[in-house]
Write a structure and sequence with these properties.
Blueprint: E1 4-7, E2 24-29, E3 39-44, E4 49-54, E5 59-63, E6 69-71, E7 80-85, E8 91-95, E9 100-103, E10 111-112, E11 121-126, E12 132-136, E13 141-144, E14 152-153, E15 162-168, E16 172-177, E17 180-184, E18 192-195, E19 204-209, E20 215-219, E21 225-229, E22 237-240, E23 254-259, E24 265-269, E25 274-277, E26 285-287, H1 290-293, E27 300-306, E28 309-314, E29 319-322, E30 330-333, E31 339-344, E32 350-354, E33 358-362, E34 369-374, E35 382-385, E36 391-395, E37 398-402, E38 410-414, E39 418-424, E40 427-434, E41 439-446, E42 451-457, E43 462-467, E44 473-477, E45 481-485, E46 493-496, E47 502-507, E48 513-517, E49 521-525, E50 533-536, E51 543-549, E52 552-557, E53 562-565, E54 573-574, E55 583-588, E56 594-598, E57 603-609, H2 612-618, E58 622-625, H3 629-632, E59 644-652, E60 657-665, H4 669-674, E61 683-690, E62 695-703
Antiparallel strand pairs: 1-58, 1-62, 2-57, 3-4, 4-5, 5-6, 6-34, 7-8, 8-9, 9-10, 11-12, 12-13, 13-14, 15-16, 16-17, 17-18, 19-20, 20-21, 21-22, 23-24, 24-25, 25-26, 27-28, 28-29, 29-30, 31-32, 32-33, 33-34, 35-36, 36-37, 37-38, 39-40, 40-41, 41-42, 43-44, 44-45, 45-46, 47-48, 48-49, 49-50, ...
Length: 704
Amino acid sequence: MKTILILCNLLIVYSQLSYHAPALFEPQLIRPLPTSEQLNSVCATGGGKIFAAGNNGAVVSLSLNTGVRELYNSRTPNDLNAIIFADKYRGTAVGEKGTAIFTTDAGLNWHTSKTATSRNLHDLCDAGPGILYAVGLGGTVLRSSNCGVSWNKVNTGYNIPLFSAHFAGMKYGSIGAFGSIMVTKDSGKTWSRKILSMSGNSQVVSVFMADSSLIYASSNTPHGTFIRSTDGGLSWTETGLNLPFLFGGAVDLVEDMAFRDRLTGMVITKYGTVLRTTDGGDEWTADTSLRTLYDKSAILKGLCIDGGLELICGGGGGIIGSPDSDSGWHYISGGLSGIFSANETAGGNIIAAGESCDVIRSTDSGLNWNIIGNTGGEIVRASDFFDSITGYACGGNLIHKTSDGGLSWQKVFEGTADIRDIESGSTTIAVGGDEYTGRTEVLACRNGIGFETVFTGWLGIATSVAVHQAGTILVTTASGKMLSSADEGLTWTVSEICDQEINCICFADSLMVIAGSHSGIVMRSQDGGNSWIASYSGSSQRVLSVCSSGNMIFATGSEGFLSVSADFGASWEVLQTGTSNSLNTLVPLNDGSILCLGDFGTVIKMFRRDDFSALLSKSRCNEINVSRANQLLPQNDLDQDAELYEITEVYDVSGRLIISFRAVPVHMEIQRILKDTKLAYSGVYIVRSISDIKITARKYAVIR
């Protein structure tokens, strides 16, 4: 189909990046990162990579060769119940509210496909080259012949909830329902249904069809039921799996089943029992070792057998695996929980870490993240980099250091204090103490040699530190006191900010200092911390992080609280974040935007932009063919100098960010945007570019 680009007058808006010019910061919930989310389905791509999908649109991958985990933006907030890959590049996932997403580039980008249904989709199966079936509530059966890019409805004649599906080639398939199984022998054109003797409200949670005659299924009846047909579904035998009662009399339930071949298969239960058979289900042996290994969550959910590799996923964002049935289980991937600390390195990357000590990195201003390493401790309260490769992370009683951008970490300090924050200038300062006794401790590292104690006292545990380039150091405490040093920590002065705990502090410039406390109070000083003015940020929640961008001051904290002041803290506006998760850290980025990160991997991006509605009302459109767009565009719209846009972002008309690019030359901007496959869909788009001297906004309409 011919694709037309309508270029709406290339309305260019220049605005000097003066911090005193009116600007609008708008928070955008990118999506909670798939960190400690429940994972519902796991698969192997055959190229040494594992993918899993789960609640809140979680999509994660793990390389078996390198151990690197990647976290993806699935473009959906809905739960994903099943994921499969046709090869190492093409993958599909389905889930709640008729959600279906697909990737053609090994998970790097995910796209939403239209399913023409709002019913929950429970399972997904492969039925031949590029052919997929998805099943769900209300008798929903969908078929795709292009790996999930588009879908068509299949009429089975039955309006019942469907929970599982499996095909043996293109002709023979089976679907599990409530107390029954549906079978097709003609590529889904007609279906027959067999009512089973089990309870009618029991779900057939998994089916496996070996060929036209042999079909296996498992049900979530109390203590489990295994169902088998050797005549293509005409007759069935049902065998109890005899799952034991759990502690307290709770009943375990079957969650998934998979077979390697006609004889060898596995069943997993919700609370950690693995059953194996090597004779097609006549006998089963139970393995309960996962109940102690899988401590991230009690719930197991998805099972995959790929050759000799066995994979299970479940709660806590965890994936466990076994190379074969005799080698035992290994915890190969866990979830990152709360993000407590983040900062932008000199190289433009954003490094963040948190509760699980996993270190994650973004190279595109926070839109997508990769897990690149682990500090090896139990928690990361704070991290800081003073160049693109060298940084520190602290948490518990430990300080770790990296010299390769966060890929590997070495323990450089172990003490008796709980270390809460760390920041580097000419001297690296770490602060903490003992919350119960009120002991205050300040550590300093000069010339990268090692940490030594430079202050100890009884002012309450030290909660935060700010280090200015001029050598001034400010340390806050749980008692509302502040330690200050003007000689890189050699001598200290004690003063009082307020009568409650101070959680965070930062320098806006050499004289302006901002601090956050309980009850939504933000303190500001205009004389380097000698005197303070209190203001109410608009929320009674704890202020956990503060930062500044020009005359703008941001404060964030518990229950998704985020507030901004455009007049140096005199007045505040509470912003809607779309989340109730605690927001623990703010990161001002070099491109002028602000990142906010918090519990359960929540990521919010706030960006400065002009009012696009004014652009929309003033634009007039001219039709240009995409294939000749580069030749037809007026030359004065494409500056041919060497200027770079630091970041170029594409939004739809509602302001939702579609994709972003970094370091785009001005003369290549249009070409790069036109190559973006997401713009192949009809719609109006706004391209916003930021350089060091101007902001440029252009409106496009794409018709397909």
